[in-house]
Write a structure and sequence with these properties.
By secondary structure, this protein is of the alpha/beta class. The protein has helices at about 5-15, 55-60, 65-75, 85-95, 110-120, 140-150; strands at about 25-30, 35, 75-80, 100-105, 125-130, 130-135, 165-170.
Length: about 210
């Protein structure tokens, strides 16, 4: 079983975790941290600062104004692995709703370690909406948080829009160049052999 396959089996145990609250509100504290609760946000709450992922600048620029504002406030990132059926289902949910998102793949040991530092666990899939983390796939829970963030329920993307291609969670370092091999020096030419007779070889015999 591959590392990511093991990750997926862990996520399946948590897929049934649900948020049963009927109403969700997004709150932003003084430091710009976004959380979701069943309590209305404070009157002085401000939108989270622009930043995060949510697609490249060029792809975000293609979005309708209102959707672009949501993406800037609450960027969506999906963390996936190979042979992970819940990851595929989660991706399909985002695509069906037309949610712009970045995808980070978890394959190497470095990726797994980074995922554990990020979420405190190594289960997949993981979805982040702003600073909110949803661990394990649940259609109802993901839809509820996407609704609370303001994402449309149906596709509003312009024709031809494409999400950025998936990227490894940990950027791959370029391989170090192989050390230069020392130059092979040519052997000096052999001294010519003389056939002339010598005191030790008066007949000048060569073998």
């Amino acid at each position: 079983m591959t590392p990511t396959a093991r990750l997926c089996s862990c996520a399946l145990l948590l897929a049934a975790g649900a948020a049963s609250a009927q109403g969700l509100y997004r709150n932003v504290d003084a430091n710009g941290r976004v959380t979701y609760t069943d309590r209305p946000p404070a009157a002085n709450a401000q939108p989270a600062p622009v930043g995060g992922s949510g697609g490249s600048a060029s792809s975000s620029a293609q979005l309708p104004f209102e959707l672009r504002q949501i993406v800037q406030r609450y960027p969506v990132t999906l963390y996936t692995g190979d042979d992970c059926a819940p990851c595929t289902t989660g991706r399909q949910l985002l695509q069906t709703r037309g949610v712009p998102f970045d995808e980070r793949t978890v394959k190497s040991n470095e990726d797994i370690a980074a995922l554990e530092r990020l979420s405190g666990r190594n289960g997949l899939p993981l979805l982040t909406i702003g600073s909110q983390q949803l661990k394990g796939f649940s259609d109802a829970e993901w839809s509820q948080y996407l609704d609370a963030a303001g994402y449309p329920k149906s596709v509003q993307l312009p024709a031809g829009y494409r999400n950025p291609p998936p990227q490894p969670l940990v950027a791959q370092q370029p391989a170090a160049p192989a050390p230069a091999r020392p130059a092979v020096q040519a052997a000096p030419p052999a001294a010519p052999v003389s056939d002339a007779p010598t005191p030790s070889n008066p007949a000048g015999i060569r073998f």
